User: Fold these one by one.
Assistant:
Number 1:
Amino acid sequence: MASCLAERLGELIDLSANEQAALDGLEQRERTLRRGAVLLRENDKLPELFVLRHGTMMSYVILPDGSRQILRFLFRGDVVAMAGLVYRNSPETVIALTEVTVAPLERAALADLIVAHPRLAALLIAIDQMERVALTDRLAGLGRTSAKARVAALLIEIRNRLRAIDPSIGDSFALGLTQEEIGDATGLTAVHVNRMLRQLEDDGLIAREGGRFAFLNETALARMAYHVDRAAKLDLSWLPDPR
């Protein structure tokens, strides 16, 4: 069974045959969840991690006032519940946005992988830091940018992640999120999100049709969103040699 985690890590470097085989051996079991199903609830015990093999998921926390703050959107190849490496209980809830397939990943199996393939361990650290920076960018946007800039930044973030999975995606893509979900990720109400999307259309920056979005002027959209191309600034020259 080909590894979706290998696809994700392979976005960064060319994996060796031994590394590919080791990753293929991790995803031998599968579990399917319907749309809206909960994989993990906040404070659940974390006996294992998961690799997302098909579909889209999201993680969120419930705030003291009962509102929801979406933290991450998860796509094929992402590791779900990485917090299980350091915590007994989940710090977030993870649900399926579409029908999804996940592969359970035992911590012991991951420990064996780390010992046998240090470069893969280093890549997992790199991926974790990339996700941390993406969350930092979103947090900075919540506190310092306009509502329209936040929505624009999220559109760019999702399109770039989808394009990494499918390089054939150009300026047009299916977002796959409701306006409420966009709002819960950007600190806005669904009504406010709808207004911001209309403004982006009126500004000639995006177009929408049947659930699909198109970037009409990506340069101006990125400038307005204060988007930083983090992928262009990656430095993985420190990685150890493969085994």
Note: The radius of gyration is 18 Å.
Number 2:
Amino acid sequence: MAIRLNARAFGRGAAGVGLALALAAGTTLLTDTAAHAQTVTTGSVDFTGDPGDHISLGQPHGFSTAAQDQLTVHTSDDHSEVTVSVRGAHGGWWNLDFSGPNGTALTARTYPGAVRPVYAGPSDSGLEIGGDGRGCDTLTGSFTVTNAVFGPHGYVQAFDAGYEQHCGGVAPALRGEIHIANPPAPAELGLGVGLAVTGTAGPLDGKATVQGTVTCNKAVPVSVTGQVTQVAHKTLIRGSYSTTVNCTPGAPVAWTAQADPTGTTPFQKGDVAVVVDAGAVDPDYQVAVSDTKTVTVSLRKG
């Protein structure tokens, strides 16, 4: 029987403030590079094993949120893998990993012929239970999912499964159950940015002042950045701007910013092309969200 020490860490629109706004729908979710594990609200992990099982040592083990043990859970974006970490209130740490074949989402069914995920082929199911410094180099097993409800960005609302694992392919087995119940997944952050179709060109400092609104469905600080571009008398004039505004749900929140021309030619009365980008981090999922517009703005003398 091949045995290893398990040191693998867990984790594998709108009116607004008297402005004539040019609004366009569309919120962009930037790449989710660090979907985070969530703390389980209500859950339990229980397992025991036959005499000779290397992982359980033939003894029962039980952990639950009711007993103040800490359980955290995460699923992959395609919901094909669920990983659970257990930290006992009185000691003990365990990791559980369940994955479906061919990158398919885990659903209520039995997954036979499971192997350790690191050795799983495209058509194999994956299973791995280990902890307290003990793990299997190779294993065989199966698990049955009775309930699986997922949300966006690695959110697990419910996951219930029973499992059986044979370390190193030997007869003694580890058997157990896992039950996880969390509140329904929070809504994803919705973010919108609007840009007024009129602005001002400062007669003294040559800066272009632009303004607009941001809208959101969660209270978040929003970074508003962009660039103003103008061609006047065959001269290209450009300048960048940035500001931060605290967005609150319910009504558009106004923002104003000034673009300082990069050269010696000031912004002048007339049309300019304005790019505006609003960005924020979803506080529930820790992913970046943005909305971008490009609008022709008419500058008047300030």
Note: The chain has two domains: 42-181, 191-301.
Number 3:
Amino acid sequence: MVLTPGPNMAYLVSRSICQGRAAGLVSLGGVALGFVFYMLCAALGITALVMAVPYAYDALRIAGALYLGWLAWSALRPGGRSPFQVRDLPADSRVRLFAMGFLTNLLNPKIAMLYLALLPHFVVPDHGSVLAQTLVLGTVQIAISVGVNAMVALAAGSIAGFLASRPVWLNVQRWLMGGVLGGLSLRMAFDTSR
């Protein structure tokens, strides 16, 4: 799931390409803080609140599906762009990079759904503290996500250069990303299980 391109990866790649690896890693710090925020929400029972309020889960699920559908359309529409396509962006300060990384992750429906809908399914109350289990699962997910995204941020320039010199590969990557996001969007939209 971490390897599926989404808003976080697109933001990290764009910043790494435009401002260098250090900017990508500062942005990743903000993204990581967003993961911690969602993990704490899940651990402290906000998940239960979302599940208990009628239609709250469905509203979150449909909003996430619509957002993923929009991302898929952005990639697949005529003239759509890959997150690895080089483009000029204005340079931002480290504080802004960190804040935008945090905000990008908070508004990422894939992460919201992961923590609010998927992660609780792996917590078994009979196996000990629900809080401890949620924190351990969340920490493992954060470690994997930060590790993978750090590698993507560090390699973004090389990946972008490789794809820029091979337009067919850039197109394949764009269609693959759009297809995966579109599939996730449809699955999320039509999944009525809680």
Note: Residues 130-164 form the longest helix (35 residues).
